[in-house]
């Protein structure tokens, strides 16, 4: 990888960002650590054929994290430590704050996160892969599961706790009564999602309760007519993915939570409004929009969904 920036525009941004960091008094010792981190990012962009910051998309952001995850250390042996990669992500969040405040960009791009001791971005499905999984759903319950996890962006625990009364097919609205932090939220359903859920509730769910407890409140019920657990629902998703026969998709190790990340990614790609995304996913902060309270020096740009 080359060591210097070629573009005058990118050189200007590195200098301006360096001043931004100093004015905001972000602690980085006596070095220009944050500026150097962004310099490396901009050099990588140039090598990827991008010379304007406005042209950066979520696709490049994910590829850059893949690059960081395999980059050798500049000193010593081995690749970058996870804490170093997280620092790069943090600084990219600050960089986006600078870009937005100074109107260098109009829309943010998705910055993936790393968790659980792994050095790879959370697995995200493309639109085409989402469609492929839908095509291999064997029944209305499986299509409804995809629609709740991806189309409504619910967490696994929220899906498992969902009751029939929480899904208003007339108003096209789904209610999460106790989300993360015991927060209640309402999630709008698209016509496609509404269609799949209606078919499940009208045709298939009653069959699953035949000869069993007709008063079961759970939206998703297992073969015994009882509430499905999050683990069981993940197993159903894994079966659908395996049935696609697509090796690359199976290797992604997709879970229900990955579908939530996928819809967040796609909303940002389609320039959905910040307030809508925050409300849709039930977040006070959301990593795909990088909106922070500037005075809070302890803020974290990467937020777990």
Automatic annotation (TrEMBL):
By its UniProt entry, which InterPro entries does this protein fall under?
A: DNA_brk_join_enz (IPR011010), Integrase-like_cat_sf (IPR013762), Integrase_catalytic (IPR002104), Integrase_recombinase_N (IPR010998), Tyrosine_recombinase_XerCD (IPR050090)
KW DNA-binding (keyword) present: yes
Would you say which domain of life the source belongs to? Bacteria
Asked whether the UniProt record includes Transmembrane among its keywords, one would answer no
Q: One matching Pfam family, short form?
A: Phage_integrase
Query: Can you give the residue ranges of the Tyr recombinase domain?
Result: 120-305
Keywords for the protein's UniProt record, in alphabetical order: DNA recombination, DNA-binding
Annotated membrane-spanning segments are none
State the family it belongs to: Belongs to the 'phage' integrase family.
Protein name (record): Tyr recombinase domain-containing protein
């Amino acid at each position: 990888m080359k060591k210097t920036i070629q573009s005058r525009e990118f050189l200007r941004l590195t200098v301006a960002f360096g001043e931004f960091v100093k004015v905001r008094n972000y602690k980085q010792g006596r070095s220009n650590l944050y500026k150097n981190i962004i310099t490396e990012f901009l050099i990588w962009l140039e090598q990827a054929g991008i010379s304007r910051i406005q042209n950066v998309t979520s696709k490049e952001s994910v590829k850059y994290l893949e690059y960081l995850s395999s980059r050798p250390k500049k000193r010593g042996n081995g690749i970058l430590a996870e804490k170093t990669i997280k620092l790069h992500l943090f600084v990219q969040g600050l960089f986006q704050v600078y870009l937005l405040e100074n109107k260098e960009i109009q829309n943010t791009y998705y910055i993936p996160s790393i968790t659980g001791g792994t050095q790879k971005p959370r697995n995200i499905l493309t639109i085409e892969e989402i469609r492929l999984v839908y095509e291999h759903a064997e029944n209305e319950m499986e299509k409804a599961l995809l629609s709740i996890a991806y189309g409504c962006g619910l967490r696994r625990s929220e899906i498992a706790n969902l009751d029939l009364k929480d899904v208003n097919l007339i108003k096209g609205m789904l209610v999460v009564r106790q989300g993360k932090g015991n927060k209640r939220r309402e999630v709008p359903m698209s016509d496609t999602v509404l269609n799949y859920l209606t078919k499940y509730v009208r045709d298939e769910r009653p069959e699953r309760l035949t000869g069993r407890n007709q008063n079961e409140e759970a939206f998703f019920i297992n073969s015994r007519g009882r509430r499905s657990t999050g683990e069981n629902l993940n197993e159903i998703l894994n079966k659908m993915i395996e049935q696609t026969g697509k090796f690359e998709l199976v290797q992604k190790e997709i879970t229900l939570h990955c579908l939530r990340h996928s819809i967040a990614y796609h909303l940002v790609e389609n320039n959905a409004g910040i307030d809508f995304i925050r409300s849709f996913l039930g977040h006070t902060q959301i990593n795909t929009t990088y909106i922070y309270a500037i005075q809070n020096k302890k803020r974290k740009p990467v937020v777990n969904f």
